Structures are given as structure tokens and as C-alpha cells.
Amino acid sequence: MQKVKMIAQGRVQGVGFRWGVYTLALELGGITGRVWNNDDGTVEILAQAESSAIMAKFIQEIRKGPTPFSKVTYLDVQMSNFPSYSDFKVAN
């Protein structure tokens, strides 16, 4: 199981970014986790997948920006250890 914590900076709030991440996770399949806005204007993502190839594709698509109006200027990706999720949700 590969688990990563990502923090996206740029135009990532108010542009449907979290819902784009959610949709991407569902489209790729096999990805579970959470995504939410931080008070500092960034978006945080906890994601896990059995397949490293699917995780790599997920990260690649997030770097591009999962919605037409989003623009990721920096994406911090770190291996992480967090409780396992059975689904993917947009958290408050």
C-alpha cells in the first residue's frame, strides 16, 4: 500500500480543485483518501493506492491541475503514514 500526503499551492481554492481531485480518484479507481482546503490557501490531499502506477498517474494529473481553472504552482508530495481509508471524500 502506497500512502502519500500532498500539499498543492497555486490557484487551488475556489476553482473546484477538491472536487476535481475527488473525480480523478474515482476515475482512476483504486485510490482512497481525503482532500480539504487549508486556511493558508493550499489544498491538502491524503491518498493511498495498492498500485504505484495508479498513484503516479494520480500525482501527475494533480500537478497539471484537475480542473480547467486550477493552476498548481507547487505540489509537495511526501510518503506518509495515516489511518487507512475505504473511500475517497472531500473533507470540510
Instruction: Determine the strand fraction and express it as a percent band.
Output: 35-45%
Q: How many DSSP H or I helices?
A: 2
Order of helices and strands: EHEEHEE
Q: What assembly state would you assign to the polypeptide chains in this entry? A: single chain
The total strand number stands at 5
**Largest sheet features:** 5 strands, mixed
How do the strands line up in the largest sheet? Answer: 4-1-3-2-5
- Computed over alpha carbons, the radius of gyration is 12 Å
Overall mean confidence score, pLDDT: 97
Distance between the termini: 25 Å
Short description:
It is built from 2 helices and 5 strands.
Q: What would you say this structure looks like, in words?
A:
- The protein is of the alpha+beta class and 92 residues long.
- 27% of the residues lie in helices and 39% in strands.
- The protein has helices at residues 17-28, 52-64, and strands at 2-11, 31-37, 43-49, 71-79, 88-90.
- Strands 4-1-3-2-5 form a 5-stranded mixed beta sheet, covered by helices on one side.
- The termini are far apart.
- The model has no long low-confidence stretch (mean pLDDT 97).
List keywords for this structure.
single chain; alpha+beta; 27% helix; globular
Could you outline the blueprint of secondary structure elements for this entry?
Blueprint: E1 2-11, H1 17-28, E2 31-37, E3 43-49, H2 52-64, E4 71-79, E5 88-90
Parallel strand pairs: 2-5
Antiparallel strand pairs: 1-3, 1-4, 2-3
Helix pairs in contact: 1-2
